[in-house]
Amino acid sequence: MEVIEFAKSIGDIILSKKGYDIRILDLRTISTIADYFIICSAGSDVQVKAIADEIDKKLRDIGIKCYLKEGYEALNWVLLDYFDVVVHIFRNEARTFYNLEKLWGDAPVIEISDEH
User: Fold this and answer.
1) Tens of pLDDT, residues 69-78
2) 2 burial class (0-12, 13-18, 19+ CB within 10 angstroms)?
3) What is the pLDDT of residues 33-56, one digit of tens each?
4) Which distant-in-sequence residues (6+ apart) come within 8 Å of 2 by Cβ?
5) What is the rounded average pLDDT of the residues 66-89?
6) How far apart are CA 72 and CA 79, in angstroms?
7) What does the angle CA 83 – CA 24 – CA 56 come to, to the nearest 5 degrees?
8) Which of 19, 40, 41, 58 has its CA 20 to 30 Å from the CA of residue 93?
9) What are phi and psi of 30, to 5 degrees?
């Protein structure tokens, strides 16, 4: 599976758990941190955890291991690192505060919605 297809499949998992405002930032030409960041919002800490757990479970089921998980203590911002793709699951307030889209403003963006 190509990396962009992998990222989009994670977007679909996020949608299945009612995550919203999903964006894939293409970092390939501007950073070596990862090829793509996926950023999404959740309305509560319970939803943040549900989204993160579902991504982890679905990917483990097909043999893909998460190499780093952070943020499970506070559940304001959970990060899941799959090397080429890093997933950021935010509570609304944390997403506004950290504003990764502005920080990585030079990155091309793909929006994921139910209509894609």
Assistant:
1) 999 999 999 9
2) exposed
3) 999 999 999 999 999 999 999 999
4) none
5) 96
6) 9
7) 50
8) 58
9) -120, -5
3-state secondary structure of 25: strand
Task: Give the full edge-to-edge strand order of the sheet including 68-70.
Answer: 68-70, 77-81, 85-91, 36-42, 20-26, 109-112
* Band (115; pLDDT cuts 50, 70, 90): low
Is the CB of residue 5 less than 8 Å from the CB of residue 33? Answer: no
Q: What is the pTM of this model?
A: 0.94
CATH number, span 3-104: 3.30.460.10
Report whether 72 contacts 40 (CB < 8 A): no
